[in-house]
Structure formats: structure tokens, C-alpha cells
Amino acid sequence: MPFPGHYSTINPYFCRKFCDVFRLMMLQPHQTNEYMYIHESPNWPHFHWDASQLSLLQEAVCRKQGLLHGRLSSLGLDSKLEAMAENLTSDVVFSSEIEGIQLNVEQVRSSVARRLGIESVQQTAPSHYIDSVVGVMLEAIQHYDQPLSKAKLCAWQSAFFPFGFSEGSQIEVGRYRTHEEHIVSGMFGREKVHYIAPSPDRVEAEMAQFLAWFDSETALSSIIRSAIAHFWFVSIHPFEDGNGRMARILSDMLLARGEKSELRFYNISSQINKHKKQYYDILERTQRGDGDITEWLVWYMQELVEALDEAEATVNMILNKSLFWQQATAVPMSDRQVQVLNLFLDGYEAKITSKTWASLAKCSKDTAIRDIQDLVIKNVLVEDFPGAKRPSYSIVYDKENLVQFFTEVGIEEDNGRAYLTALYKGKTHIKERLLPLDAERFQRGDLPLANLLSKYCSYLQLKPESKD
After folding, report:
1. Are residues 47 and 137 in the same domain?
2. Which of 73, 237, 396, 420 has the fewest CB atoms nearer than 10 Å to its CB?
3. Do residues 131 and 175 share a domain?
4. Domain end: 273, 292, 317, which one?
5. Which helix (H) or strand (E) holds 421?
6. What is the pLDDT of residue 304?
7. Would you say 356 and 343 are in contact if contact means Cβ atoms under 8 Å apart?
8. What's the pLDDT tens digit per position in 154-208?
9. Residues 384, 392: contact at Cβ < 8 Å?
10. Euclidean distance between CA atoms 2 and 171, whole angstroms
11. Distance CA 144, CA 134 (A)
12. Which of 325, 295, 269 is nearest to 78 (CA)?
């Protein structure tokens, strides 16, 4: 979460600027109970919530966790690592983007792949900074069962700021902050104080209490503990910068502890990045309360549900890709053909045409046509509508025509996204999120039903991989 102290054009919600004591006093009038910050409440840090508002949401999160891990059981270790790599890449990129830091996605993906031992990812030399940030994330989740300590937190925070600067200003690195922190937004002269963190002389004791709780055994679910850890940490604001990223890492650690798994397939960062204003607004309201964190918990769980939906779509794509290569492993192909096919198998959103193929493969259109026709002959690609003037093609994930297994097929909108809905073999209801282009093509009759089902539902025919 960004800090007071300097203004930034990158993050419009919270910025920081160094202020003298007098100016801060002018910005923040005398506190009354109405405007008391949560850490000034006698309830702090004994949070409470309305369990009746959480029960259904918690059940939804648990159900989706179970469904996700059920589908993952069909994957071998290599495919699981691939799914984890995609998740960690988005986690690192979006967690940094929330703070206004843009990372090179390919460098992040390459760093994650190298550390996980994945050889199929095209290597792009990552910067030392990206490698350090990825290292922090992996250390946290791969050693989720190890105690959390001040030294570990300080080391992680140092990795975020290797040169001791944030947005051009020198900051305290590798230690708890020693000055006041005011979360401020607005133009100079019209600042609004959103939150004032506990005074620096309280931070050591506050963090000792937090760390003891973090490593304690409680009856609370890991889902609720994850949400509490996130809120509690950013409310203490122990560091001068990097608190938001650290809070999200700690959230993931507690979810990993609950699942007893160092393999992570979903993250909260991508959802927070999509809904940053809601995130900051809910934090501000809850931080001005008396310890009731119901609204925060509800919002956090709703975002977890969305994150699990994202993960499910990613896993389904990897399952379909796995099935494709199981069936095509003996088909002779050039390196160029394999490279372009993998781009589409990984979700590249475009029609497969000779023009698109030539662009992706960086080859001539004539070469692209030869590549495509060779794959059509080998039954790797199929023409969407034979004889079309401008032909397009679909990947043959499964040689069997899946239409015979599906009834009640349709497209429905949910939260602005298109989903394929159907009944599989008369008993299993499916709901698969579609790429916008595929939904549009199917609805206008430009993509045959058989090809759509093949792309999104072939995993249902998948035989489990070896778990070696």
C-alpha cells in the first residue's frame, strides 16, 4: 500500500509527501471517537465480525478450492508447475502494479520458470530486481510452514528496494520505520488524510504481537486468517514502503498453510489490481472503525472467489493443452509450428489464419500457408468452414467429436464475461469462461460448436498424467 510522504502521478489514490509537524497537525484535526482510527480503539487488535455474513462466502471459497484441486489432480508435475508459474507471474506483476511499479512480464515469467525448473518457457534474462522480487515470493510460499520473523520480513522488504530509494526518495530499508506515516491523497493544499498509522514507538510491540499471532494455532479458518493478516499488517504499516506487497505475500502464506501445499494456483493481487478503488475505500472505512472487520472480510472473500475462477480457467487451458500434446506427441512438426501452436494453446486471442500465423512466426505468408496446410493434413488443425474464401482454423485437441456428449449448450453473460454453459453426458453441468473473441465468433456463426467445445472442454476426456 502506498505511503504518505510524496505525491505520485502513478497511483491516484494514495501518495506521499514529507511534511513538517505543523502541516500534519493542520491536515489532521483533533481526533474524536467518530474519526478514531482502529489502532486507537480499546478493541485493537481484537477484531470481530458478523459470522452470518461470511458463512456462504466461506463455503463458496472452500468449494472452489476443492474443485480447483480436483482438476489439478489430473495434471502431472510438469503441468502443475506450468500452472503455478502462470499464477506466480501474474501475482508478482499485479502486486507490483498496485503500487504503481510496472514490471516486464516476460522477465518475471522467465525468472519464475528458471526457479521452478521449467525448460519450456522462452528465457528472457530478468533484471536483478525482478529476480529478487520473485525470490521473495517463492521463499514465502515454498517455506510456508516455517516461522515468520522480524529478520525475515526486513530481508524481504530490502529486496523490494535494493538501492534504498522509492520513487526518487530515499527510504528506510531493512528495518521498521522510525517516523510517522500518514496516508494522504489530493492536490497540494487540498490534501485528505485517509489514515494515520500507529506511532513509530509502537511498531516494535505491535509487530511482535502480530508475529506471535501469525505463527499461532487457532480455530479460525486459513481463509479468515489470510484476510485478517492482510488487514492487520497494512494497518500497522511497519515499513516505510512495501507494506502492501508484503501483506499480499503474507496472505498467500496463510492460504498455503491452510492447504498444506507449496504449490500456489491462485492469488488475490490480480483481483485487487482490478478493483483498487474498492480496495482502498474498504480499507479506509474499516481502519476508521472500532474493530468490526466484517465488510473487509466479505470483500476479501468475494475477491478470492473471483481469483479461484481465474485459476480454474487457467488450469482448464493447461489441461486442454496437456491433452493436445498427449495426442500429438508422435506428430512430426517443425520448431516454428510447435512455437506458434503453443502460443494459441496458451490463450493467445486471435483467429488462426495464415496472416496471423505469419505475424507470430515472423515468416512469409507463403511459409505460413505451408505450415498450416501441413498441420491440417496431419489432423492437428481443422478448417473452421471448408472452402471459405478467407479460411480460419481451429486446433484439434481431441480426435473425437465432442458434440455428441453435450446438450443444452449456450452462451451466458456473468459480470461482463462470456461463459459456455452445457450439460456433459447428461449429468455434469459445466460453465467455462470464453475468450471474448471466441464468444463473439460463436454467436455470429463464425466458429462451429464442435471446435468451440474442443477448445474449452476437451479436458473432460483427459486421462490422468503420470504423477512422477
Report:
1. yes
2. 73
3. yes
4. 317
5. strand 417-424
6. 96
7. no
8. 999 999 998 888 877 888 999 999 999 888 877 777 778 889 999 999 999 999 9
9. yes
10. 13
11. 15
12. 325
